[in-house]
């Protein structure tokens, strides 16, 4: 409990120091959402488990509270996927904010909410991977609700990423809007801790249209924003390592935001007490500002998307 108060106080202090013009987000809510998703009661949020269902119920309440609209008839988008081991039913959560200028053009802001579940009686909480990205998507949805975008923004929380990017693949196999209307994807996976204070943005190499935008963000970002991990030359290539992969496969321009692996990656130690609230908040501000500018520059990306 004392710990929670410390985090809340820290998050508030960070918000007050926030430098304009990056969006001021609800930092207390951000930390509360991450903490709730990474709680033991969620049992590691594995696809097709009661813990995953509890996380989903929490996220559905958040979608409703924020006031998102469903893209189709409701937020949950169930899918069935075959893996080598089993046939699994997963559920993506998909909501949107309608654009004020180009309502029929879509940006997809995504994160996976599933994690590894319970193994040998040990809960894998997945605080950084990927309660952090999930809570960040909620914070951005809340911000855009009061600062409506020009293009429609779909907020997609994917299931089954840890089992083979299942939710993102299902989303793109049966997209809720015509796939040619999806102009770009911004995916978040692990954005809450890095000992060097570095956040990576991948995607400018396969989609150079993103580079000037990312450079402009790097110049003002309250964290150290590095571009890379998207060529495979002299570095590990992350393109197919998270849910941006299926977007890349469909030639949809994307930017992935995330940190380099840490010692707790896919370990039981990926817990709330190991995230860095100040760094996390500044990462989410950075990404929110990127999405804001991407929305305003979407004509340029759409031109590339059509010709790709
Ligand atoms: Zn992940």
Can you walk through the features of this model?
The chain is of the alpha/beta class and 308 residues long. It has one domain: Aminopeptidase. 38% of the residues lie in helices and 21% in strands. It has nine helices and eleven strands. The chain has helices at residues 2-17, 27-37, 50-66, 127-146, 166-173, 211-220, 244-249, 277-296, 298-307, and strands spanning 69-70, 76-82, 87-97, 102-112, 117-119, 122-124, 151-158, 182-188, 198-202, 224-227, 254-258. The strands form two sheets. Strands 1, 2, 3, 4, 7, 8, 9, 10 and 11 form a nine-stranded mixed beta sheet that branches. It has a two-stranded antiparallel sheet with strand order 5-6. Helix 3 runs parallel beside helix 4. The longest helix is centred in the middle third of the chain and has 20 residues, at 127-146. The radius of gyration is 18 Å and the shape is globular. It starts with a helix and ends with a helix. The chain binds zinc ion.
Task: State the main characteristics.
308 residues; alpha/beta; Aminopeptidase; 11 strands; 38% helix; binds zinc ion
- The CATH C-level name is Alpha Beta
Q: What series of H and E elements makes up the topology?
A: HHHEEEEEEHEHEEHEHEHH
The percent range for strand residues is 15-25%
Mean pLDDT: 93
Percent helix: 25-40%
Strand element count: 11
Question: How many domains make up the 3D coordinates?
Answer: 1
Architecture (CATH level 2) name: 3-Layer(aba) Sandwich
- N-to-C CA distance: 52 Å
- Major beta-sheet overview: 9 strands, mixed
What are the segments in which pLDDT stays under 50 over at least 5 consecutive residues? 13-19
Give the distinct bound molecules. Answer: zinc ion
What CATH calls the topology is Aminopeptidase
């Amino acid at each position: 409990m004392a710990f929670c108060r410390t985090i809340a106080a820290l998050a508030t202090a960070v918000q007050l120091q926030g430098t304009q013009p990056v969006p001021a987000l609800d930092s207390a809510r951000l930390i509360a959402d991450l903490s709730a998703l990474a709680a033991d009661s969620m049992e590691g949020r594995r696809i097709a488990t009661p813990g995953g269902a509890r996380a989903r119920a929490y996220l559905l309440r958040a979608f409703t509270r924020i006031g998102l609209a469903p893209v189709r008839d409701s937020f949950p988008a169930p899918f069935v996927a075959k893996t080598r081991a089993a046939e699994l039913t997963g559920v993506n959560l998909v909501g949107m904010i309608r654009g004020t200028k180009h309502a029929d053009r879509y940006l997809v802001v995504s994160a996976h909410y599933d994690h590894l579940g319970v193994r040998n009686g040990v809960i894998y909480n997945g605080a950084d991977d990927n309660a952090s990205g999930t809570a960040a998507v909620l914070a951005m949805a809340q911000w855009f609700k009061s600062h409506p975008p020009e293009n429609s923004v779909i907020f997609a929380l994917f299931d089954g990423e840890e089992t083979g990017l299942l939710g993102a693949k299902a989303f793109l196999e049966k997209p809720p809007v015509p796939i040619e209307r999806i102009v770009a994807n911004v995916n978040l996976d692990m954005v809450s801790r890095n000992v060097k204070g570095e956040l990576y943005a991948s995607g400018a190499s396969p989609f150079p249209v993103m580079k000037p935008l990312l450079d402009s963000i790097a110049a003002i970002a309250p964290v150290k924003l590095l571009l890379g991990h998207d060529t495979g030359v002299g570095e590990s290539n992350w393109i197919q390592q998270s849910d941006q992969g299926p977007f890349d496969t469909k030639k949809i321009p994307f930017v992935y935001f995330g940190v380099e692996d840490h010692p707790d990656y896919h370990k039981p130690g990926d817990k709330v007490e190991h995230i860095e609230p100040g760094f996390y908040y500044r990462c989410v501000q950075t990404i929110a500002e990127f999405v804001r500018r991407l929305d305003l520059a979407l004509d340029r990306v759409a031109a590339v998307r059509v010709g790709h």
